[in-house]
Each structure stands twice: as C-alpha cells, then as structure tokens.
Design brief:
By secondary structure, this protein is an all-alpha fold. It has one domain. The protein has five helices and no strands.
C-alpha cells in the first residue's frame, strides 16, 4: 500500500470509527501532528490491524 493510500485509509476509517467526516478527521490529524506521524511511522503502522490503528489514533489524539 502506498503512503497516500494508507493516509486516506486511516482518515476514512477513523471518520467511520468516530462518526465524523473525512475532512473533519483530516483537520484533526493535521492539527495534532498525527498526519505527520503517519508519514514517519508508516513502516511500523501500515501492517497493523484495523483495531490497533483505531486505538492508536484514539490514544494519540487524547495525548496518551
């Protein structure tokens, strides 16, 4: 999966997970630094399960 495809996957599935829209999640990811983290941590994250990613995003956005 390319980095761009992974970013879109993460945004869209997190939007579904939280009941938000894609643009809302994109802004939240960009403002929090999570979007940049997806790029730097791509090698580690892209092989993780959907459940792990959603938990990781929840924790990251809550400052854990």
């Amino acid at each position: 999966m390319s980095l761009l495809s992974f970013e879109i996957f993460c945004i869209e599935f997190y939007a579904e997970h939280t009941g938000s829209t894609g643009p809302q999640v994109y802004k939240k990811f960009a403002d929090s630094g999570l979007l940049a983290a997806l790029k730097t941590e791509y090698e580690d994250l892209h092989g993780m399960s959907f459940e792990y990613l959603m938990r990781f995003f929840d924790d990251y956005l809550q400052g854990k």
